[in-house]
Amino acid sequence: MSGRKELQFISGEHDHQRCITVAMANAEQVCQQRGQRFTALRRRVFELVWQQHKPIGAYEVLEKLQEDGRAAPPTVYRALDFLLDLGLIHRINSLNAYVGCVHPQYPHDGQFLICESCKAFAELDSPLITTTIEQSAADVDFEVHRHTVEIMGLCPRCRIKVCSEDNNE
Amino acid sequence: MSGRKELQFISGEHDHQRCITVAMANAEQVCQQRGQRFTALRRRVFELVWQQHKPIGAYEVLEKLQEDGRAAPPTVYRALDFLLDLGLIHRINSLNAYVGCVHPQYPHDGQFLICESCKAFAELDSPLITTTIEQSAADVDFEVHRHTVEIMGLCPRCRIKVCSEDNNE
DNA sequence: TTTGAAACGTTATAATATAACATTTAAAGA
DNA sequence: TCTTTAAATGTTATATTATAACGTTTCAAA
Fold first, then answer.
1. Separation of alpha carbons B20 and B95, rounded Å
2. Which residues of B touch A115 (CB under 8 A)?
């Protein structure tokens, strides 16, 4: 179980470049499978979204893009929409922000843990949550197309921090 | 069970004025209990949010307020924020819109069914969903402060409609 | 009756997102 | 290889959602 935990909330010191490389390879494959073009721009935006394990806003992405040259909002939004459609990234509605999808190989609903302290996020994709939601909906004759679950709170390392701060007071 | 179902997705023909009256009485009570002022403006905004069993945008509320006289965005947002803080309304993040809370007597997380066809919504507040989410979070040492669940799909009556349309083709 | 905090008004502007149309690119057929 | 055409991108303008900042009013408690 502890291996699983480490997969969920990634520590600050992991080899993040490797994360990005793996994500990029996955994305490449997904695009190929679906006959979509993974252009330089889309690749760059995807990379920017992945560059932190934190949700990033569209205009933040835009700013970083502008470091390379001129760019306008539609450029960013089009790339984000493309990536969203393919399930390569998700949108966190409560933050107006975007995150890289951890397992884009198959389509799935978004279930997110978001740390209110450090803003780190983790994707759950729990079949149990999905089943429970579908059952609750079925109980009232509602036909589910998709769902999003956004869970705000404290990630493991921030819980520890808060705890030790409390002790020091 | 069928009584429960009718509570969830309200039919078009129910006595909606009565809904509003009941909601207003509840709101009144909640405000009193917490020593908050339920001013004319707040009352009016609350009423406007409740006037349909559908999510309503802040600027839609503004437009309706302006039928009574001059009003600017901050007026609406302040009233909405007040009502949100007290749990008298909820915000549907995926729609940037607001809905009246069906049981504001105790604080709770938002769990919503939203019909993609007619835009009607229902509030679930399912302890089972809450428990499942909390358990999933606990599995990865995450401390939950709050969550929102937004479920998009088809409500019972729109399912029937779509079904009969299919048959007519 | 004063007074101070809360509520509200008003103006300006920030932050997020899209519409509409021009231009470029690149894959697929001639 | 050239042409064509659909997809992708660039560009300008603007829509939509939300808040900052500050002045004025209201109203309950002292």
1. 22
2. 142
CB proximity list for B59: less than 8 A, separation 6 or greater = B73, B76
Residue closest to B124 by CA, chosen among A140, A109, A113: A140
pTM, to two decimals? 0.91
Query: Which chain A residue lies closest to B2 (C-alpha atoms)?
Result: A140
Strand partners, A98: A56, A91
Tokens of B29: 């009570």
Query: Three-state secondary structure along chain A?
Result: CHHHHHHHCCCCCCCHHHHHHHHHHHHHHHHHHCCCCCCHHHHHHHHHHHCCCCCECHHHHHHHHHCCCCCCHHHHHHHHHHHHHCCCEEEEHHHCEEEECCCCCCCCCEEEEEECCCCCEEECCCHHHHHHHHHHHHHCCCEEEEEEEEEEEECHHHHHHHHHHHHHC
Nucleotide nearest to A42 (CA to C1'): D8
Q: Work out the pLDDT band at A52, boundaries 50, 70, 90.
A: confident
Distance B39 CA to D28 C1' (A): 14
Residue in chain A nearest B151 by alpha carbon: A147
Pick out the nucleotide with least CA–C1' distance to B42. C7
CA A67, A71, A74 angle in degrees (round to 5)?
Answer: 140
Residue with tokens 């429960």, as numbered in its chain: B4
Per-residue pLDDT of chain B (169 residues; tens, 9 = 90+): 444 544 567 766 778 889 899 999 999 999 999 999 999 999 999 999 999 889 999 999 999 999 999 999 999 999 999 999 999 999 999 999 999 998 888 878 899 999 999 999 999 989 999 999 999 999 999 999 999 999 999 999 999 887 777 665 4
